TrEMBL record, chain A:
Keyword Transmembrane helix in annotation: yes
UniProt xrefs under InterPro entries: Permease_MalE
Recorded superkingdom: Bacteria
GO annotation, cellular component aspect: ATP-binding cassette (ABC) transporter complex
Name the record gives this protein: ABC transporter permease
Keywords from the UniProt entry: Membrane, Transmembrane, Transmembrane helix
Transmembrane segments: 22-40, 60-79, 99-118, 157-181, 207-230, 242-268
Any Pfam family the entry gives: MlaE
GO MF annotations, alphabetized: phospholipid transporter activity
Protein's organism: Mucilaginibacter phyllosphaerae
TrEMBL record, chain B:
Taxonomic classification: Bacteria, Pseudomonadati, Bacteroidota, Sphingobacteriia, Sphingobacteriales
Membrane-crossing segments per the record: 12-32
Stored Pfam families: MlaD
Keywords: Coiled coil, Membrane, Transmembrane, Transmembrane helix
Keyword Lyase recorded: no
Coiled-coil regions listed in the entry: 187-214
Organism: Mucilaginibacter phyllosphaerae
Protein name: MCE family protein
Residue stretches making up the Mce/MlaD domain: 41-118
InterPro entries xrefs: Mce/MlaD (IPR003399), MlaD_Phospholipid_Transporter (IPR052336)
Amino acid sequence: MDSVNNTTSPAPSRISKTRSKVADFFLMLYRIYAFILRFFKEVFLPPYEFREIVRQCYEVGVRSFTLISLTGFIVGVIFTKQSRPSLTNFGAESWLPSLVSIAIMKALAPLVTALIAAGKVGSSIGAELGSMRVTEQIDAMEVSGTKPFKFLVCTRVIATTITIPLLATYTAFIALLGGYLNVSQNEGTSYATFMEQAFEPLTFVDFWASLSKAIVFGFTIGIVGCYQGYNSTKGTEGVGKAANGAVVTAMFLVFIEEVLIVQIAGWFR
Amino acid sequence: MDAAENKKSITVGVFVLLGVAVFVIGVLTLGGQQKTFVKSIHISSIFNDVSGLKKGNNVWFSGVKVGTIKNIHFTGPSQVDVVMSIDASTQQYIHRNAGARISSDGLIGNKIIVIDGGSPQAPIVQDGDVLQSEKILSTDDVMKTLQQNNQNLLAITTDFKQLSKQILAGKGTVGTLLADSTMGNQLKQTMRNLQAATQNAARMSSQLNSFSNKMNTKGGFADNLLTDTVTFNRIRASVGRLKEAADNASILTDNLNKASNKLNTTDNALGVLLNDPKAAVKVQSTLNYLQQSSVKLNDDLEAVQHNFLLRGFFKKKEKAKQDSIKKAM
């Protein structure tokens, strides 16, 4: 009887572990949902932390500008350079500006910006809020009557939602500039011709879809970073996990959202 | 601290402002491309098949982009109404009898609408006008034509195949020509003859040319003949006289002919003399008689001279003759 119990005992344990994981997953979903809902409840209520929003905009936007500009420029040059051989096979090098602009405006600019921001800003927010959580600064703020959610989370999410679309715009412009430099160097195309050809295949739907993507990506990076940091536990280990989780989850969600928004934009074409 | 905060705020302000400016410039550039912010008119055209034309595609007039496709919708069975937004500044150049057709931007580019034709006599197109659509060959139509061409090509090559086979076998004129060396030699000879004839013809042509040049020489016989009326009249008179002489000669010949004919007959004296042998014998005997008579007459006359009655007359005559000889000496 004992032997039977011994042999069958690991099975219920695995089931219970699986049940526990599934429950944890749904619990996490609920917490995220509640976190987002709380953000929308608190963001419209006073006091409005403008000064902190501006400070966060500076941290998120201005401090990321150099990195994202450089990345955008490299993306523009590399994409143009790599696309040339394929078009040369068809004798269609003149289509390079159109191809580069379509790729940059429709996908690369918001996506590259979001991925760089997820790595730099998301991890920073996750680590900052996580360390504040594990050092009980957030608890202290709550005790002192300051609204930590509004001050820490809402300001950061607003800052990322505002600055990442702006960064994406800069990235698009700088990437196009990189593409132009490469095309100009190889094909001798003038700036006016390049820009005319670059904007030729684009429509307002592409513009608004790109802008919408950047806004959603910004919100996602902010909210995921804040969620991971705000809910971090287990001391210093939790800070690392929060930073890592912020980056991984944000990047994953960015790709999911990319697919969804491209699909939605397709309905308006 | 406040100064640092202000500096950050200003930096953020500049960052946001520049970002918004870049975005607005992008929107305006795109709007300029799409002719969104320019005054435009709407015209339409109804097609049976729009070949994948989409809203936002370009409209070209004489190779210049003048607008975009604003809307595409069905209006009836197999009829698609395409509404085009045309830049108002180009309106004055498009006339109501212009046609619209679906084309593509390059070989594999986007579909576009091309407006072409239209005469200045027709009124200028107005907002809401419907342009006549022109059917163009679709890719399927082109492929059908190509298929037909391929079949024709196949038939032609099959014929050529048979032809070349027959030529190789030495059948037919060309085959014989290629296979038979004798015929080839004959052909070569013919060609040589032809070449010689051509050279002769060229030479003759050259000579004719120089002859005609001589003919055209001012003051020459031919030139006088053709241009001098006096010479012409003289020649005409000479010809007239020649004609007259010829006529007389003809009459003379007739007379001679008649006379010779009469000489052949025996109904006249000469004819009898020439043609009748009996008469000839008679004439001959008569002449013989005459000869004998003349001899006898001569003797008689000799005898008369010696007669005393006439002897004095003959002596005087001899003497006068001798005197005239002496005077002459």
